[in-house]
Protein 1
Amino acid sequence: MVISRQILLTYLYLFVYVLLSSGVILYNKWVLSPEYFNFPFPITLAIIHMAFSGMVAFFLIRVFKVVSPVKMTFEILWFGNTAYLFISVAFIHMLKALMPVATFLMAVIFGIDKLRCDLFLNLILVSFGVVISSYGEIHFNIVGTLYQVSGIFAEALRLVLTQVLLQKKGLTLNPITSLYYIAPCSFVFLFIPWYLLEMPRMELSRIRFNAWTFFSDALCALALNLSTYLVIGRTGAVTMRVVGVLRDWIVIALSTVIFPESAITKLNVIGYATALFGVVTYIYLKAKDVRSSQTPGESNTDRAAKELLMTEKRSSDQHGENEEAPLVSSLKSRKSPVS
């Protein structure tokens, strides 16, 4: 059996995404942790990422003219980074099993999904597993847990709002143009809490500043953002969730080796396995819904091409109506009797 070049390219994108995502998570933990690099300023780190990404996107669009700016979104980055200061990497990724729960609730609130009994019961199972995992956490910290859960719901809100824009406004995602708008907006939104919360605590004499560390961390974050949009555009949200589950297992395993404080208990494993079972079931139910909504024998490519043709047809019809309107009104005026 010969594997096509497109399939190999898709697997390469997925591999790069998992590699970069895991690397950025562990790198951020190392930079922020007082026990290692000791830079306990998560908002500052996020601002550095956004400033670097915005600068690169600006040069690619305005100077090198790689692509044209087409859309605008925003994203929230603060809460997730702050959680690294209070709880372990392993426990953070066990809490991320709540992501489908948060996304589903936000989708129901914004009217792009319906409250179904099977999905609701499944998400209760996920929440139950996360509660068990939290109960078994050795270094449980309520502040870090609240930061992480807040970050999960903020990310879910961002995803749902993006879906609303894509479905109702017909906007398209592009990695570079998205960063072109995301980075400056995120920088501005993050500047306010940074000025109020972190700047008064920052003493330049006590900060370990290493240009290579911050540059490499920002470069990895930029590459992760670009790879995320590439994978979403090539595979879809369901595949991203499956790959995200695999990524979380890898991060949990690596964190227990790299960071001794990330030790996990049997109750952690039982709780996360319960939540993971619920997540996989949720993904299966959503994928089943997608398949049932497609015409039998119709591939994703055919469906996308059909939607594109329908869009072009609607656009041409509207254009034709606009051109015919003056002619019709002119003919009617000629036929009307002169008073």
Note: The radius of gyration is 24 Å.
Protein 2
Amino acid sequence: MSCSRFKPIQPYTPATKPLISDQRGKPPVRDHLIRRLSAACKECQRRRTKCSSENPCLECTKRGSICVFDMSSDKRRKSHASKIEAELRHYQRFLNDFLRAIQDSSDDDVRNIINTVRAGSSTSEIQSEVNSVLMRNYCSRPTL
């Protein structure tokens, strides 16, 4: 049995989608219609004022403020929830592999994993150590 079937843990990278005006295939909204954002710019949020969602918005233009929109801060959007779900699935897979590596490995390999964790290593460094242990375990299995 070859080691090519082993899939190492991949670092978490959030998926990004291009912004499309309408996901259902309808033509884009006309420019003369007022487009509402569900999140106001940072300055309007801070001042608790109505944001016109233009860039720069009317309030920021009036006050001479810098107008910055942060779409990722809107936690009501489905995209935010799907990003959180993807991140949770990633860490759940990582935890499952981490536990499997500890359960199925030799004491020396477990010590190496623990030392990597205790050294304050980043998640990607810990993933790398777990992947190498899992790969050694997978390749050292006797073939039937």
Note: Residues 74-143 form one domain.
Protein 3
Amino acid sequence: MSETPNPQRGAPTTDRDAFGEYERDLRKAERRVAGEIDPGARAVVVAVAVLLAMVSMVLPHTGSATGLEVLTFAPDAAAERVTIVSKIFVYLLTIFGIVVSMLALLTRRWLLAWIALCGCAIACVAGMLAWWSRNTPGVGGVEPPSGVGIGLILAWISVFVLTFHWSRVVWSRSTYHLAIEAERRRQAAEQDAYTSALYRKNPDQP
């Protein structure tokens, strides 16, 4: 006597395949967003802040010394008695506020955005110290010949704007990534519950 085929026998396998395909799709989406950012409208604000940082480099940071002259240790910067904190600030502004921020904006890589955020945050503190150094007597009571220039003010505002918006971009990416991970854990729990229910219903089925 021939055995009557059971149309329900293939159903569990089909459901398991559907669960597996759904999990693979989630993993692909997670890998895709793991290293990417989506700044959205903030990209325009970041681009403007980077542009202002570049403009500040050609404006006087103190006296007649521009940001580029501070960066290159030009004679005008030495004549203005530019302190080490001002040089550190200009270097941080150039590296993180301009170069790394531009790369992060062009490549949309999360790692570069995170590096830009950390560097700009440090630059905020360095900018405050640079401002303070232009209004504070040095060793022996020698006062700086000039105060804070428009270039230093513009550069400091730029790194504050970059720090704020990079932090928002990095945080929004992290929130989206955590949501995908939570969805994948929920899907895995549902699959385990479904498998356990099938086993309790048919304990002899392999």
Note: The first helix runs from residue 11 to 34.
Protein 4
Amino acid sequence: MFFLENSKYEQENIEKKKAQYAEKMNNKAAEIHKAAEEKRAMVEAQRGEVVFKVEEAASKFRSSGTTPKRVFGCFSC
């Protein structure tokens, strides 16, 4: 009788620890996912700034009718 009660108690304890560990892992996964989304948003914002600067420079050259001094970015002229 004592053995059955002890076994039942240990089984409940194991199930409780499993549930706690699963919750901990889910929280960790959610935290990683959130950090990745924040980094993705930051990169997207930086890309938008670069695109804006390039479009701004392009419109400046179009309006003035001139060409940039450095036509090719990979060659230093």
Note: Residues 2-64 form the longest helix (63 residues).
